[in-house]
Design brief:
single chain, alpha/beta, Rossmann fold, 7 strands, 33% helix, 21% strand, binds guanosine-5'-triphosphate, binds magnesium ion
Amino acid sequence: MKVFTRFITSSADASKFPPPSAPEIAFLGRSNVGKSSLINSLVSNKIAKTSNTPGRTQTINFFEVRWPGRPHPDILFADLPGYGYARVPNAIREQWPSFINPYLTTRSTLALCLCLVDANIPPQKSDAQLVDFLKQTQRPMLVVATKADRVGTRLQASLNALRQGLQVDQIVAYSAKTGLGKEDLWKLIREAGERLTGELPSLTE
Ligand SMILES: Nc1nc2c(ncn2[C@@H]2O[C@H](COP(=O)(O)OP(=O)(O)OP(=O)(O)O)[C@@H](O)[C@H]2O)c(=O)[nH]1
Ligand SMILES: [Mg+2]
């Protein structure tokens, strides 16, 4: 079954975020790790702009996701600007504390923070910092290892290294190219949404 997706708004200013409504899933991670590609893969639609140029997404882009036949959005996706890329202009790096930290700490409908890390590279300090920050905020969080299609036979070893380096119990391996992990991740997203709102309709009906 296909979900309906629609871009809602793009904002760099906490006062202009859409009013909290459906449970929200935040996509976080270093520039170029595959945040926008992951959103597109989940909804089978090229709705979020992807690019080979790191730092392309510079505001929080909100998308609504609606199951067929439902009157209101079931879930919102928030595509956040990437961090940790040296060539991202200072102005953007400085925005992190001013609007991303408040978003992560105060957004009432934030149901799950997906922390994306590249499955092909060892744990990075900036990723560990984000994971630690989210642990402190006590927001529900899940690490997703992206671009798993490129890792080949080293995947398990790579996931173990990430789990250890980031000090987390669970990592979902994902490939926007092959769809690996898509079913598992949707299940975890739905469960996170349901913790806020009660039961969501089945996607496989
Ligand atoms: N092989 C492979 N390439 C991927 C995958 N996901 C993303 N990419 C590629 O990685 C690059 C960056 O992807 P984006 O989705 O734009 O990354 P982003 O995290 O949104 O980047 P910023 O918005 O700049 O922070 C693009 O060239 C994608 O095609 C994947 O699962 N497999
Ligand atoms: Mg992006």
